[in-house]
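Hey team,

Filing this mostly as a record. A colleague (T.K.) asked me to run one chain through the structure pipeline before their review meeting, and I want the input and output archived in the tracker in case anyone asks later how it was produced. No errors, nothing strange. Just documentation.

Input sequence:
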Amino acid sequence: MNRFTAVGLSALLFPALSFAGRGDPALEYARQIEGDGYVFVPMRGLQDGVVFYRKYDRTVGDSQSFSGLRQVVVSYTVNEATRLRVEAEVRAKGFQLARNPPRTKDGEFCKPSDEILALLGERAQQFPPKPVITASNAQLCFVSFVFNPDDEARVMKALRDETPVEPVGTIFSCSAKSVSYNPRRLFDRLEKTNAFMSAGDLLSADFWSFVYDTSSLGAKEPALLETQNPKEAVIDFMANARLDGQKISFSRSALPGPTVKCDPVDIEIKLN
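Output structure:
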């Protein structure tokens, strides 16, 4: 079988997975809870989890002295009533918020608007108001604005009454149809049964032998995949193995670990 044929057969076997998104392997999206104004996603194998809020309120800090200029910090935070309500709802379902959640906000948020940049003038170039994305789920970000003392009244009014940052953004996430799994135990079992040939750092197997051995073992011992959907997990694991010519290969220095076959969904957020 030549390389073209192997690639073509692989695509036929796994057509829906060719461009599957990848989620955060620390999260178990299949157990997520969607509530009023939020989505809660448990961490893998735990009752702790993270909250994706859909709305953040603006807080404009006090103007402070800064090297002969003025500075003010604008932050976007979930209001206290919403935060307490969400925490109570999550606890009522047997979960709790993680104390040290994984970083989930990798998008571009709190980008200063063109209008506020024009108002700041040369100070926006001298001290660019770059947003700081926080690790806290209850706070999306904060932005520091520096301006001339003579412009304080106009700038403060604009920060409070107008739109200092772009009003809408999205957080990448995965739907409840997503599959979280860990193929490591299945992989180790395959290695112990001499399913792979070893050459230095490389482990390899014939393409079709790998497909047969993996699918057979996954069907006989689905618990090896540590998932609620072993069939989807084993297909995803096979589909994402590296194809070198007529062989499947793995590197010993980068063996498979917790993985998410993600059904992508963007959580739209609103900034008040």
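Quick notes for T.K.: Residues 1-20 have pLDDT under 50 and may be disordered. Residues 32-166 form one domain.
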